[in-house]
Write a structure and sequence with these properties.
Blueprint: H1 28-37, H2 41-54, H3 59-72, H4 85-90, H5 154-159, H6 173-182, H7 199-203, H8 206-218, H9 223-236, H10 242-254, H11 258-271, H12 275-287, H13 291-304, H14 309-321, H15 325-338, H16 343-355, H17 359-371, H18 377-389, H19 393-406, H20 412-426, H21 429-442, H22 447-460, H23 463-476, H24 482-493, H25 497-510, H26 515-530
Helix pairs in contact: 1-2, 1-3, 2-3, 3-8, 8-9, 8-10, 9-10, 10-11, 10-12, 11-12, 12-13, 13-14, 14-15, 15-16, 16-17, 17-18, 18-19, 18-20, 19-20, 20-21, 21-22, 22-23, 22-24, 23-24, 24-25, 24-26, 25-26
Length: 531
């Protein structure tokens, strides 16, 4: 109909029961879909709950609530998550125990490009201690071979990143925590009782089945039932639907069936190449400790999806893990050509320039991050260090002051350690000693502060105190060579050649190319020969 002249056409009401008086007569289903589109999931869930209380068989409303619950608990599972104690004890996938150097993430090649461990500290597995924090860059996986030949113990994994203050990493930790929060008892019971569903009936209705599959994976965290639903839907689609194969691969991955997940992701990519399936397949290869296979997947994905920075970043991360710094830097630069505001690429380039003795270039990159709105303790700490090494002393302490204002107990010790390092550089040893003491007060296992306190005590002539600090540093940082070397040097000066030899051997296990340790061992061998 045409509205009468001078009057406005009103929005028709579907019925008095369907009217939603609290929102000026807007239809509740339209309003719920609008909230879902605007990512206001709580409001969408509330409206859908009210409608389903009156009519539990409304499929459109059921779909909206299912999608809202799923998207509210959705996490990005394309990143490689941390592996911890549960992965060591429950993982039945076997990998080569003695891989060739340079072919395994647990055993990087000996011909590493970029700064060595004397400039940029690395773990015994060859992984840099500093740099951009991303999933999978924590402690080395328990049970893997370290660069020194020893195993990363289960005890070290149980201790976590900060012993006594952090819980150890477990398999699927993020998913377990989110799933537990989402499955709290709701009024009237859970939204969907998955155990009572007839999955064959849902497999015949693709639209509802896809929403239900994501609900199983991301809300209820039930990959077993999701895998069953995906299998039924895949058979009904005559094995030609790439979406169901990808979800089946995700279900297998969450169940720990990595080989089956790999087959499903490859089959999905054969039907239709997608970014998510490519990243998932590369993640499976990384879990299998096959970096070259993962790089091949990333390269094929980069050629299929030009401009997709996740493919370039994946290759760069693997290059960093293998110690191929030059190739990684080039990939980060390519990433910035496509996305000039990529935080990870800018931060990694800044770190590379800093450890390449180019603090001015690193400072420009960190300033770029500040202009982009990044405001964190780590960023201000790095800016302060760049200012110090670039001889801009007036700005150094101001940056550390900003870092301390933003710091928490997790990172405050590192800031105070760097303040002490700056104090040593300017010759204020009393301030340096106080800063290291504060760092240990914040974190009692901060190995770097123990080591530097030992050096200061040694310069004061307090030999026993220095040896105690070096021993504490070595106990809390088995990957560092400095505490072992310093302890060996003190023992050598005191004439305790046997202890000096034992400590310098451990220093060389952590850093075989350390020139001072090699020279000290050479002198000790001469002393033993004379004796």
């Amino acid at each position: 109909r045409v509205a009468a002249s001078g009057a406005m056409a009103s929005i028709p009401r579907i019925g008095e029961d369907d009217a939603y008086d609290e929102n000026d007569g807007l239809h509740p289903v339209w309003l719920a879909s609008n909230y879902l589109r605007r990512r206001k999931y709580d409001e969408c869930i509330a409206i859908c709950t009210d409608i389903l209380a009156k009519n539990p068989y409304d499929q459109a409303v059921w779909y909206l609530k299912c999608r809202a619950l799923t998207l509210k608990n959705w996490i990005d599972d394309t990143e490689v998550e941390e592996e911890g104690v549960a992965d060591l004890l429950l993982d039945e996938n076997a990998t080569a125990q003695t891989p060739r150097p340079g072919t395994s993430l647990a055993r990087p090649g000996t011909s590493r490009s970029g700064p060595d461990a004397g400039v940029r500290p690395t773990t015994r597995g060859g992984r840099p201690v500093t740099g951009f924090a991303r999933p999978g860059t924590g402690a080395g996986r328990p049970g893997t071979k370290s660069k020194g030949g020893g195993d990363v113990s289960v005890e070290s994994a149980l201790r976590g990143g900060r012993p006594g203050t952090s819980r150890p990493v477990t398999s699927g930790g993020r998913a377990v925590r989110v799933g537990t929060a989402s499955m709290l008892a709701a009024p009237g019971g859970p939204f969907v009782d998955l155990e009572k569903l007839d999955l064959r009936k849902y497999a015949a209705r693709p639209a509802l089945a896809r929403a239900l599959c994501d609900y199983m994976l991301y809300h209820d965290r039930n990959p077993r039932l999701a895998a069953e639903l995906c299998s039924l839907a895949t058979v009904r689609a005559q094995f030609k639907d790439w979406w169901w194969k990808e979800r089946l691969g995700k279900s297998y991955y969450q169940l720990g069936l990595l080989r089956d997940a790999e087959k499903q992701f490859k089959s999905s990519l054969n039907d239709c190449e997608t970014v998510s399936a490519t990243l998932a397949l590369a993640k499976v290869h990384i879990r299998h400790d096959q970096p070259f296979a993962a790089v091949a997947v990333y390269e094929k994905g980069a050629s299929s999806f030009p401009g997709e920075t996740s493919m370039l970043l994946g290759q760069a991360r693997i290059c960093d893990a293998l110690g191929e710094q030059d190739e990684g830097v080039e990939l980060y630069k390519q990433t910035l050509r496509w996305d000039a505001a990529n935080v990870e690429a800018v931060a990694c380039l800044a770190s590379h320039h800093f450890y390449s003795d180019q603090p001015e270039m690193a400072l420009r990159h960190y300033r770029r991050l500040l202009q982009m709105g990044v405001n964190s303790t780590e960023l201000w700490n790095n800016v302060g260090l760049c200012c110090f090494f670039a001889s801009q002393y007036d700005m150094t302490l101001h940056c550390f002051d900003r870092a301390l204002r933003l710091a928490t107990d997790d990172n405050m010790a590192d800031v105070w350690f760097n303040v002490g390092h700056v104090a040593v550089g300017v010759g204020d040893l009393d301030m340096a000693h106080q800063a290291f003491e504060i760092a240990l007060g914040v974190e009692s296992t901060h190995a770097e502060s123990f080591n530097n306190l030992g050096v200061l005590e040694s310069r004061k002539g307090n030999v026993e105190s220095a040896r105690a600090n070096f021993a504490a540093a070595a106990a809390n940082a088995e990957w560092a060579h400095e505490p072992f070397y310093n302890h060996a040097l003190v023992a050598f000066r005191l004439g305790d050649f046997q202890e000096a030899f034992e400590r310098v051997e451990k220093a060389l296990e952590a850093f075989p190319e350390h020139a001072e340790s090699l020279e000290l061992r050479k002198q000790l061998v001469k002393q033993f020969t004379v004796l």
